[in-house]
Request: fold
Amino acid sequence: MRSPTGQPQNMGKIVEMIQNAVTTGRLDVAEQLTGQRDDYLLSELVQSLYKEGYIALAKERLMQLDPRLLREPSPPFLDLCRIWAEICYDEGRYDEAAPIFEAIADRQPDYAAARFGAASCYLQQAIVNLERRIQLYHPPKSEQEKICKYLEDFHHALSLIQTSGWHTQWNPAQACHFPEKPTTLMH
Reply:
């Protein structure tokens, strides 16, 4: 049975079942409940996957959505945009994440986490640029000392922002679902 808007009348129950399936590790059931065509249910699946630490799967499902949904935050997809921005941030794509965080903050002015996310992106970009400057231009020692002081200040500011809890945090059980990091060989 469908409501006048075309959504199943038991949408809340389906969402709850998706969340429970992901929480209990029954991802196949969650996928079946989500179906193929409903962006709202896909959004709920992505949020549940991300919350439980299935970051790679959440990213994979996000890639199925229209990219504008992820870059132009609007209800009911603001949480998806935040998740996408956090994934971009974690992958070092700060220039992609910052405007998404800013757009979320514009839509929800009381959502401080989005502003902290944008600030973290800009600080990370500044750190990368200063480190690159040292590597590329080999400035004199006095200039390097100044740059290192700026880097130290930026890292300090970044650590202060991180204490705000703006980024999703996972418990150890959820963290075991993280994608494996590539190993590097030491010579």
About this structure: The radius of gyration is 20 Å.
